[in-house]
User: Which sequence fits this backbone?
């Protein structure tokens, strides 16, 4: 399905019934990474799995910025008249979810964010170096995005009042200390580390994150 915003067209797939749940993928991916999770989640929620701008079947763009992605999702919520949806974001999708909560706190009810960072230096040293080398040779806009954004301040984190569940893998490319810093900085937040998991191994083509979302929302 296509939802037109003021700037672009967003492709999404809707399935299930119940409380609205928006799913936001990571950098260079699309909504299909959630296919296995959605098969579980649709029994409990109305799931809206979105391709963010410049990804999947949504409109291509010349530049990528997290704030633009957050604005797209806000317009999506407004145009579909969604009543305070839950937002799940993986990696870049988690960044978008946090910015959405900062800019439009009235629009959503809860966030679950996996492998999220608030500054580029939240990535571990090795991965940050790999991305810098990759960008040097490719000049890819999606890599530039990760090297220059986000720039979410501690004050902005502290102003998020809705419940936020931060997750990461014990072998994540996001520093565990950084994930803890985010969770500690948000007043109503928890941190869960999935033992033995990589950045996306419990999210991409997995039902583990679906089980976690269901358990978290029921608390």
Assistant:
């Amino acid at each position: 399905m296509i939802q037109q915003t003021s700037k672009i067209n967003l492709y999404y797939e809707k399935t299930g019934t119940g409380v609205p749940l928006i799913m936001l993928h990571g950098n260079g991916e699309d909504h299909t990474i959630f296919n296995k999770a959605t098969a579980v989640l649709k029994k409990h929620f109305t799931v809206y799995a979105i391709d963010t701008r410049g990804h999947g079947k949504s409109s291509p763009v010349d530049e990528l910025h997290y704030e633009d992605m957050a604005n797209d999702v806000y317009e999506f919520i407004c145009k579909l008249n969604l009543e305070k949806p839950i937002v799940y974001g993986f990696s870049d999708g988690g960044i978008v979810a946090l910015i959405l909560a900062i800019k439009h706190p009235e629009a959503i009810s809860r966030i679950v964010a996996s492998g999220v960072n608030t500054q580029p230096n939240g990535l571990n040293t090795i991965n940050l170096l790999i991305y810098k080398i990759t960008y040097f040779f490719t000049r890819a806009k999606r890599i530039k995005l990760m090297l220059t954004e986000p720039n979410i301040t501690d004050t902005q984190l502290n102003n998020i009042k809705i419940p936020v569940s931060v997750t990461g893998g014990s072998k994540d490319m996001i520093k565990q200390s950084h994930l803890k810093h985010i969770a500690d900085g948000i007043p109503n937040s928890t941190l869960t580390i999935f033992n033995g998991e990589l950045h996306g191994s419990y999210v991409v083509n997995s039902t583990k994150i679906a089980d976690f979302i269901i358990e978290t929302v029921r608390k």
Q: What stands out?
A: The longest helix spans residues 66-79. Helices lie at 35-41, 66-79, 92-103, 125-138, 141-148, 154-158, 176-185, 208-218. The chain is about 35% helix and 20% strand.
